[in-house]
Every structure is written in C-alpha cells, then in structure tokens.
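[Discussion] Sanity-checking designs against the backbone

I'm trying to build intuition for which residues belong where. Below is a structure token string of 358 positions. I'd appreciate it if someone posts a full sequence so I can compare it with mine line by line.
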C-alpha cells in the first residue's frame, strides 16, 4: 500500500492499493447519510457498495456516462436527490467512476449546503492519476470544458487497483497519457520505466503499474500542495499540470467530447512540444522523445480532423488565457517548465501543421 499526502486547503490522503475500497467504511465515521454517485456501467458495483455500508443510510445516484454527466441539468438532478433525502453537512458524497464522475460529484459536494464531505473512489487509470487528485471540480457549458466549477478538496481518495482489470485496453492506454505527462514535467523515472517496456506498460498487471501510478499521483500532490488555485502569477505553479491540455481541450470540444481525454492530451503534448521546438525552447531530441514514447504505448500523436480557426478559437477560452492572449506551459527540458505567452499566430499554425502532417 502507498499513502500519499496532499496538503492544500485541507490535508487528505490518497491510498493506492489493491482492495483500497475496504477502507471506505472507516472513513465514513460520523456521517449519517451517504450518496454514491456513479455512471450506468457501475450500477451493480454502486449497489453492492451501498449494501456494504451498514452503519449509514446510503443511496445511489446514477448519472450519465462520461462528459454527458457534466451538465447543469445533471447537477440539478443530483441536488434534488440530496434534498429529497435530507442531506446535511454531516453527510458525505462518494464518487464511484471515472474522471467525469469525480468532476461532477466533487462539484455536487462543493455546492450542496456550501460544502459537504467528499470521498473519491476512482475506477479508471485516468481518474486515479488526474481527476480525483487536486481538488478541481466542475461541469461543462456550451462555451467549453470545465468552465464552471470550484476548487474543493476531498476527505480521501481510494485508488483501488483492482478496478483497473475491468478497463478496456484502449481506455487504460488513454490514462497512460497523464502518467507520461507527469514524467515529462517532473519525474523522468516514469519515462524510463515505460520506455524500457512500453508493451508491458499497457497492462494493469505490469510489475511497475503500482509504481508509475504512485509516482504520477505524487507529482500532482507535490504541485497542488504548493499552488492549489493556480495563484503563482508569472511563476509556473499548478499550471504545469495543464501541460498539453490547451490543444487537448480544443480537440475535445471540436470532437464534441467523443475523444478519450488521454488521447487528446497525447496529441496536445506533441503540439506544445512542436510549439516549444519551433520557438527555440526545446531540443529536437526532446520533441522526438515525446512522439516516440506516446507512440510506443499506442497513443495518437497527430490530429487532422479539425478546422484550425475553430481549434484556435477554442484555445482562446482556455483557463490559462489572459484576455485574448494565449498562454502555454512549455518545457525547456525535462522537469524544466516555462510559460510561453502570446505566441505569434504563424508559429501556432506552424505547430498545428506538424500535428496534421507529422
């Protein structure tokens, strides 16, 4: 078992282990009611979990799959369910699912009575290393992804590795994009482990699975513990976790959120590496390493379906932007971040062309 402490607006632990969900009962001490928010695919798991919670009154709230759950209508549906059950500040929300479920459930917990207890039980690789850690919660709007939300820390995060055996290979590989990102921005040991055995890394049963998950979570924990709300100004604080995400979110919007998040992040990593290389910040060797490691595990590194003007417009509403000025997290070297502000339009388009025609 690995326990990782996150120190933000409150301190909580992330538990990484097989069977970690068994600790949920103890964590619910003091609660009278519990609401388990889950997607349809986890209905049976949610019901079994509800039945196992014998010391509290537990209900399940089923929400739509993936990004379809992150809407104002679904948020209202969850509020209504809590209201009908009389949820108070003594009670707890439990998220059971992937990143979209943790985003939604986190915002439900943050907004109900201005904040009730929250425990995340992420069931996908992507959620374990990204969405469930760091306190970002939110929903989407017609203008873009995650534009409405709150910073809200959970009481605990239980990363039960047994859930990973139920993921499809494509979904699991998508989650590797965020782990690889963590390797580039802070922990090169992650890259070395994956590069030594990229085929093995595609499996939840790989001997290093626990290690790379724990390392990626530690990267995020270290960053958010220093800068929970991205308030470090011109310094590179929490924004580093968005490495590759500006273009990734533009892809997701262009594709109406039909792309896996990790796949979009993989392309976004290559785009921003191309941008940094073309502007003289990144070596060709490091750029090539981005493409090579992502390809080696089966992640995409190119994108040719979108319209450039639409993608550019989507990037301009990215949360890192200031006014009309785009800001990109880039790397000068591994674990050496910087902010590239207001890059020339021609430079942006040149980087895009490298993604379209690698």
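Best answer:
Here's mine. Compare freely.
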């Amino acid at each position: 078992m690995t326990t990782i402490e996150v120190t933000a607006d409150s301190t909580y632990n992330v538990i990484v282990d097989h069977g970690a969900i068994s600790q949920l009962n103890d964590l619910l001490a003091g609660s009278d009611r519990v609401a388990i928010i889950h997607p349809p695919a986890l209905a049976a798991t949610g019901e079994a979990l509800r039945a196992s919670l014998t010391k509290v009154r537990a209900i399940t709230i089923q929400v739509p799959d993936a990004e379809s759950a992150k809407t104002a209508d679904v948020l209202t549906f969850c509020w209504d369910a809590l209201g009908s059950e009389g949820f108070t500040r003594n009670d707890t929300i439990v998220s059971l699912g992937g990143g979209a479920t943790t985003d939604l459930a986190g915002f439900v917990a943050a907004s109900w009575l201005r904040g009730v207890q929250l425990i995340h039980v992420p069931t996908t690789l992507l959620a374990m290393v990204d969405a469930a850690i760091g306190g970002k919660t939110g929903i989407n709007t017609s203008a873009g992804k995650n534009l409405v939300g709150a910073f809200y820390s959970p009481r605990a995060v239980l990363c039960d590795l047994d859930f990973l055996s139920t993921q499809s290979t494509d979904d699991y590989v998508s989650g590797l994009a965020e782990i690889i990102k963590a390797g580039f921005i802070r922990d090169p040991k992650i890259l070395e482990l994956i590069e030594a055995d990229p085929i093995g890394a595609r499996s939840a049963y790989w001997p290093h699975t626990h290690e790379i998950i724990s390392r990626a979570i530690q990267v995020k924990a270290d960053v958010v513990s220093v800068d929970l709300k991205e308030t470090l100004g011109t310094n590179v604080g929490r924004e580093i976790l968005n490495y590759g995400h500006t273009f990734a979110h533009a892809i997701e919007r262009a594709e109406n959120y039909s792309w896996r998040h990790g796949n979009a992040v993989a392309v976004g990593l290559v785009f921003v590496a191309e941008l940094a290389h073309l502007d003289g910040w990144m070596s060709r060797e490091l750029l090539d390493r981005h493409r090579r490691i992502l390809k080696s595990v089966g992640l995409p590194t190119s994108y040719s379906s979108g319209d450039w003007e639409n993608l550019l417009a989507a990037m301009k509403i990215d949360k890192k932007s200031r006014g009309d000025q785009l800001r990109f997290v880039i790397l000068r070297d591994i674990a050496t971040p910087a902010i590239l502000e207001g890059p020339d339009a021609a430079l942006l388009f040149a980087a895009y062309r490298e993604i379209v025609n690698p």
